[in-house]
Amino acid sequence: MQEQPLDFYQQFFTENLYLVPDQTPATTPIPVPISAAEEINGDTVAAKTYRILGENRKGLLIVVSLPESEFAQLPRHDFLTKVLTSIKHLPDDVGFVNLNPQEKLDIYQISKETTLNALLAFGPGLLDMSSDSKIHLYKPASIGKIPLLIADVLTTIENDVNKKKSLWVGLQSIFLK
Fold it and tell me: Residue 48 phi/psi, 5° resolution?
């Protein structure tokens, strides 16, 4: 913008005007990098609601409710590793979410926090859903475009051949179409 001669301002102002030199600092602020996983709301970084174990490379979330010591060992659980291998996933491809007893997973909230391409819940009643939802154990369903399968607790499935077969049929219809 071009500067006007100071005489110009005398026509509009009756008070004395003073010219103050520019006091802008010579240095520019250094931007602080924010990781892509962090979401910014206004001036604050949103806190994550759920702790996710694993790298979740393929967007498959496995939801359980286990004691913390068992949950820490879940990526190395033999039966679960076999199940994941059968649907062409590795433990590193998956994100594991452990819920406290009586806690329910808010699917909308977790979808804002991490990649969610499919959801597998080992235990009935782990998902925050309306009471009129008609999702049955081992029957594939979806929430929006996200495929969903709810099954019994892993130890129950591991010890029951019929439940293993039901799980396999449900997994095939979601992952091996």
Answer: -80, 135
42/158: higher pLDDT? 158
Q: Helix (H, G, I), strand (E, B), or coil: what is residue 127?
A: strand
User: In the 8-state DSSP scheme, what is residue 6?
Assistant: H
Q: Which residue has the tokens 């924010």?
A: 34
Pairing of strands 146-151, 52-53: unpaired
Q: In this predicted model, what pLDDT tens digit does every residue of 95-125 receive, in sequence order?
A: 999 999 889 998 889 999 999 999 999 998 8
| CATH 3.40.1180.10 given to domain 52-175 | no
Q: What is the pTM of this model?
A: 0.71
Tokens of 20: 């103050």
| Partners of residue 142 on adjacent β-strands | 147
Tokens of 74: 């879940």
- What is the rounded average pLDDT of the residues 37-49? 55
| Sequence ranges of the domains in the chain | 52-175
Q: How far apart are CA 97 and CA 109, in angstroms?
A: 13
